[in-house]
Specification:
With 141 residues, the chain is mostly helical. The chain is built from 7 helices and 3 strands. It starts with a helix and ends with a helix.
Length: 141
Amino acid sequence: MIDSLPSQLRRDEGVRRSAYQDHLGYWTIGVGRLIDERKGGGLRDSEIGLLLANDIEDRVRTLTDALPWFAGLDPIRQAVLLNMAFQLGTAGLLAFTTTLTHVRAGRYIEASKAMLQSKWATQTPERAMRLADQMRDGQWR
């Protein structure tokens, strides 16, 4: 009997892949999942972790497709590009042509400098500095 509940709830609540306001104006997602803080809604830590893992997996796949040499980078420098793609979107990262040319060639000092000569570095200076340092010396920051 309980096995029928998910189908019933999907029918009665509907299925929404993005956040929406329910008939009372509270933010909801999925199958009637309340995420509105005003009513005590939100995500569990495990759900946040699952979303993050899925997002990272998507970025790895996208960057591997767009930059075939990405898979050959060490994990620390892969993480720099993944972090940037997470913030800027893959298209935004791919616009860093000078940086990516240096990374591909293993010129990490030059890549680091190019990262810091961007509008992105002026918009999020602490993150940019930390990631540029990580790119330069291959040490987690």
